[in-house]
Amino acid sequence: MADFVMPTLGADMTAGTLLAWMKKPGDEVKRGEIIAEVDTDKGVIEVEVFTSGIIDKLLIEPGAEVPVGTVLAIIREEGEARGAERPTVTAPSIPPEVSKPAAKISPPTGQPRVHISPAAKKLASELGIDLSQVTGTGSGGRIQRADVERAVSAKPEHAVARDAPAERQERMRRTIAAAMARSKREIPHYYLSTTIDMSNAMAWLATENLKKAVVDRLLYGVLLIKAVALSLHEVPELNSLWKNEKLIPRPEINVGVAISLRQGGLVAPALLRADQQNLDELMKNFRDLVKRARAGSLRSSELSEPTITVTSLGERGAESVFGIIYPPQVAIVGFGRPIECPGQVDGQVVLRPAINATLSADHRVSDGHRGSLFLSAVDRFLQDPGKL
Amino acid sequence: MTREEIKGTVLRILGEIAPEADLTRLKPDVSFRDQLDIDSMDFLNFVIALDEELDVRIAESDYPKLSTLEGCVELLDSRNTVTVVTKTAQSPASLGQDDKPS
């Protein structure tokens, strides 16, 4: 049996609202298939399942907001006999708003019993506080009213399903604030910057695009993403996560791309295995990703699996950007607006298209020397765009 | 297709890309990329939509002209009359000074 849990879709996501089940008990599911829709401040996310099997039980009903890690469903894995009973362990739900149907949740039978004072229980219920997240300071870890009051001040605001755009925007702003404040508090950033000659890349792109139908044209941003993905093979420690004071190298290169949203805010979903895709595939997937990010319909793996982020300000942006690392990642690569820089051709000084590339990286993981090697590799790949 | 119809199509496509914008206040002779905060991806989607709906061949060298409402109507109107010739001749505009990919 495998637990299907509320996934973490970003560094500071604490809870999500189950909107709908795409499957019912008895249905067969394949790894990677979408089995539920969850509402978050990043829009409605289609959640994929990470194991193949048969849905045994759905534990949470649509409309319930539950903390990250809550078991939502039990999946009988392939080859497993029916009826292998095990206790269902779920965290208590954050009560949905009045208009939502109340969630039926199995009691946490398999967990050690935590004592909660009646006053604390009442207050938590009034304020929508998840008691499983509250640390008790009473005797034997008993949760008291004061513990709940403390949790209130630390608790991010929870909203329930499909709220108004303004509210969603506010929640997104708070999520960004929490993630970025945590990053600046915990990650010792170092910053590097270099200017890359883009003559070859831009000329190659113009020629390629002449041959292509409009719908297949490439944006220069795709060359940047691919150059970053390939360069990570040479400095793999930048393609890692930092969790619990430990470096966790990631075998797959999933490049998160910062996408600004029209109503404000941004998301950075991943182009999965960007190093394995050719430029046409990458462009197609990039277009699709931007479209879905702006429509608010991303997939869980795109939000939970980026291993590095690229932020490109585009043609109308500033000349350079020094990004803030998105935890638990350990690096972010920034590209400014394309500019013209003096360069030397056959002994003459001429203006050449160029772009400023920066690296913000975690000093616990790498240093300026390795970071420089990475930026040099990005430069080198961009000088030979036909091989990207 | 008349100039008015072309203008209507351009505005409708822009409205789909920037649904929150008040297009009645769009200055026709100023880049709408600035006015509507249209990035490279939005602009590419705009060109793809024009290509699909008006069946007009648009080269990257046309992009600067296509960045204002006035420029769009002018360029698309001129191509409109020779659509068939342009399409069959398959003659992409040559790489010009302005031909920067976006």
Measured by DSSP, the beta-strand proportion of chain A falls in 25-35%
Series of H and E elements of chain B: HHHHH
What are the low-pLDDT stretches of chain B, counting only 5+ consecutive residues below 50? 82-102
Main sheet overview of chain A: 7 strands, mixed
What's the count of strands of chain A? 19
Radius of gyration of chain A, in angstroms, nearest whole number:
24 Å
**CATH topology term of the largest domain in chain A:** Chloramphenicol Acetyltransferase
Amino-to-carboxy terminus distance of chain A: 43 Å
Provide a descriptive summary of the structure in words:
The complex is a heterodimer of chains A (388) and B (102). Helices cover 27% and strands 26% of the residues of chain A. Chain A is α+β, with helices and mostly antiparallel strands and 388 residues long. In chain A, strand 10 (240-243) and strand 11 (246-249) form a beta hairpin. Chain A is globular. Chain A starts with a strand and ends in a 5-residue tail after the last helix. In chain A, 40% of the residues are buried. Mean pLDDT of chain A is 85; it is low at 84-112 and 155-162. The longest helix of chain B is centred in the N-terminal third of the chain and has 15 residues, at 3-17. The model of chain B is unreliable at 82-102 (pLDDT under 50). Chain B has helices at 3-17, 32-35, 40-54, 69-80, 83-89. In chain B, helix 1 runs antiparallel to helix 3 and helix 1 crosses helix 4 (69-80). Chain B is mainly α. Chain B is built from five helices and no strands. Classes of the chains: A alpha+beta (388), B mainly alpha (102). At the A-B interface, helix 4 and helix 6 of A face helix 3 of B.
